[in-house]
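pinging the channel bc i need a second pair of eyes. not urgent but kinda urgent?? the chain im working w is below, pasted from the shared doc
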Amino acid sequence: MKKWKVFLSLLFVFIFINSLAYAAAYPTKYINIIVDGKTISVREVPIIMDGKEVHLDVPSYITKDGVTFVPVRFITEHYGAKVDWTDSTKTATITDSKGTEIKLTINSQNVYVNGKKQVIASAWVPKLVTLKSGEYPRTMVPLRFVSEVLGYEVGYNTDRGLPFINKPKEQQEDKQNNNNNGSNNGETGGDRNTATNKIKEIKMETVDGKQAIVIYKTESVEVKTLKLTNPVRLVYDLSSSTLTSGVKNSYDFSVGSVKGIRVSQFSSDVVRVVLDIKDGINSPEVKVVESKDKLVIIPISKLDEIIKYTDNGDSKIMTINTGDEVDYDVNYDEKTKTMTVEVFSDSLDIDEGSMSINDGLIKTITVNKEKRTYKFVVNFIRNVEYDILSSKNGQIKLSLKRNQDIRPSNFLIVVDAGHGGSDPGATQNGVKEKDINLQVALKLNNALQGAGYNTIMTRDTDVFITLQDRYTIANSNYADIFISLHCNSASAASASGIEVLYCPQEGSKVKTGDDYPLAQLLMEELAKGTGAVNRGVKKRTDLAVLKGTSMNAALIEMGFITNSEEVKNLQSDSYQNKIVESIVRAIQRYFQTYY
């Protein structure tokens, strides 16, 4: 494998907080870059290296996600590291003077440190970045990961609104000077103790009925709060403070959105408390209450932090993050389409509430609390099959999928009588299309209900309904099938027969499947059941009720109102019944074949 030693542009990623803070502290300038063929806007910033701003002709910058990128020359010039490039695999190899080796590959989360594999966050994945169209691409990799592996201090200077990097402490000639240059924004530190407040201990206690983190101290002091990301954590800096139990401690506390706590003597007179947040929670909320002798932090658990709901192919995964191992029961009532997950826990701390899902399977998830018992009530739109996948690692994980039982009661059909009210549709010799459409629709609705199906009519009287309202009714109720009934007309009185219209998936922004099979079955049964001319199945991408419905939909032109023979049939009960029976048979065949 051939290698070239090159000075490539290497992206360093650093996660920062509070974009408003640094936007105010340092002039805001945005530039456009090209990543994965897309042009994005980023904020250009210098990097503070050992207290000095470093500006390069290839700019460092921060993305909208709070990620900082730095060119590789920064490593070679300021870290004294060597960079090799393997073009066949698009891999950069960084080696420092101590022999530490880091391998990073473009578009891969897999990195290797001294031959051992690690997986970095997706936001840190190395990329080829072009600064201007026509220029050669630059190779970018994650800053925090590389810097920490090589032993550098990494942080964010809130006063200057810029990221900083400091040399390893053993390379610093004056530690106190580096603290003044920005290291007071890292997560470690400590030298001469000048603090008056003593941090004695940290406990997890119940405060006002809520689980809380209690920091015992001796004095009232200023507390500064920071939020860091990738991973998400909350930071509390207590000024004029010192730890009585040493330089650094950690606590395996799990409460609400918090999975652990770290405390350190961060500088000579600042104690830093870091709350590590559980995976998947991006916006943790806490209530902080300070008194002279204690600081109380109460995590506030939101419902969408406790419950995660994701796609998994033909099923959905619902995860309840309990934090600790818990006892629980799962009960499902098929009649009411309701599942209750009853959790018995003293550690789970969540307010009662409800979250709306409305994805065609679940309508809502509601949480009720009774003493130490939480009831997660899931209201389904359809009957489901479920499996319990896991109850370990502080999670209850359920696999949910629609019950494939083809019983009619599991399905909802919308019957749409075309036109109505001020819109008569086609007319001929005093006969109005809207009247025939409604007559057949009422018969069809009754027949479907008699067969056990659930139904909704867009109109059951002579009223005007907009086209948008018609497909909105179907979509908002997550119908399985939409049938629109119409009569045809033509200038030639001899025109006759039935045709079925449908919208192909590519002709709609909301279609999730192929409507042709339903239309084909309807056409077959209608031609056979009525003996009318089979005019075939036709594509139509211009009809609102067809392209606006997300479910399988078809519009049936039941016959020509302009044909003297067919208009008589269309008005007769016996012929209308033939149409209805044919539609019901087609729907039954459709569910048996495709569900």
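so Residues 1-24, 172-193 have pLDDT under 50 and may be disordered. and The domain at 4-184 is CATH 3.30.457.10 (Copper Amine Oxidase; Chain A, domain 1). — does that match what u expected or am i reading it wrong
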